[in-house]
Amino acid sequence: MELSSKYCAVLCAFLLTGCIGDMERDAKPIGFDPVIGHDTRAVVESIPFPEDRTFNVWATAEDGTPILAGETVAHSADGWKATKQWPDSELMFAAYYPSDLDPVYQPGHGFILHDFNASDDEVEVLIAQESTDAEGTSGIHTLHFEHILSRVDFRVKHSLADDIEVKAVKAELTGFGLTGDYNVAGDFRWTVDGTDGTITIYDAGQSGGITVDDTAQYIGGEYLTIPQHCKAEIYVTFLVRIGDGGWVEDRVSTGQLNTQWQPGKQYTYTVNLTDTKLTYTTGITSWTSK
């Protein structure tokens, strides 16, 4: 009888150990494959997220528990890894760049930005919308980042007679929304505040201005804008001289562009001073193609 009791105790201990072993998981660290989407002429393609930058990620369990709460993820020899391991359930992910963006995150809705001003820092903003995944065999979840801002730049030329000299001394973009709120319900996911925004594209100051001829040349830099439908105008102040005459200042406008800036697109406006007015053409490219 005593042997039977000892045998049963050993057997129970063996079975209990086996059960605990079955319950244990060899959980992997939560890993990521971050990519940035951009449009080509044919399809939407992706490029790798730059390894010298960081992004921030939220991961929410099925019961609403935040597993990652805006954690900063950097690239290492092991790839893009978070500090937490995969649970035995699916997670909902969302991520943003740059780290100091600090948006509000609402699981099931996404990120929200209030009173964002695209011209404050001139830094591109990327969002990976919500997506769900489980650990799987690799433990790697792909984060599809997308640009949520537009970018504009400008070129200037003239089509006047050969004996006319032209200089550009100032250029401005006016009549659009400079600030706004980012949310999934808005137009292009944005709700724009007003149409009184102004960007000084170029101001010569005391330098005398840029000599303009019949070849388009870039003026000023590249500027980030909130995606929107707007009726912005480009104003350019020129100095014009005919032959040996004096310089005459003339501020002219393109009139309303009636433009539509979409996320992830770059808009190059080429303005052309003619005998009667300032005309323009628009070149549209993907964010990364230039």
Task: Explain this structure.
There is one protein chain. The chain is mainly beta and 290 residues long. The protein folds into 2 domains: 29-147, Fimbrillin-like (Immunoglobulin-like, Sandwich), CATH 2.60.40.2620; 150-286, Sandwich (Immunoglobulin-like), CATH 2.60.40. It is 9% helix and 57% strand. It contains 2 helices and 25 strands. The chain has helices at residues 2-23, 118-121, and strands at residues 29-39, 44-48, 55-61, 66-73, 75-76, 79-85, 91-97, 104-106, 110-117, 126-133, 140-147, 150-158, 164-176, 179-187, 190-193, 197-203, 210-212, 217-218, 223-225, 228-230, 233-242, 248-253, 259-261, 265-273, 278-286. The strands form 5 sheets. Strands 1, 2, 3, 4, 5, 6, 7, 10 and 11 form a 9-stranded mixed β-sheet that branches. The longest helix is centred in the N-terminal third of the chain and has 22 residues, at 2-23.
